[in-house]
Amino acid sequence: MLPYGGMVRVYGVPGCGPCEIVKMFLAQKGVPYTFVNVREDLEAAKVVEALVGSPTAGVVVEWEGKRRAIRGVSPAALNAFLEEYRQGA
């Protein structure tokens, strides 16, 4: 059984600094995730573009049908996402 809000999908591009920070944060917090490369997945690129205006301009996380853009990947933004995820919001 997965904890809290289940598996998180992280939409981004390989080598993206903010994407790597989000993935490292999730791993450190024990949050299961999978990475979706928006350069290879057209539907994923559309998801990101709808939320941030460009398919490669931000990190989008998705869990249990919810999607959020994480901008700036500051500790405050990451912890706010984690709290929302844990609450199942």
From TrEMBL:
UniProt source species: Thermus oshimai JL-2
CDD domains membership: NrdH
Positions of the Glutaredoxin domain: 8-57
Name of the protein described by the UniProt record: Glutaredoxin-like protein
Pfam families xref list: Glutaredoxin (PF00462)
PROSITE patterns reported for this sequence: GLUTAREDOXIN_2 (PS51354)
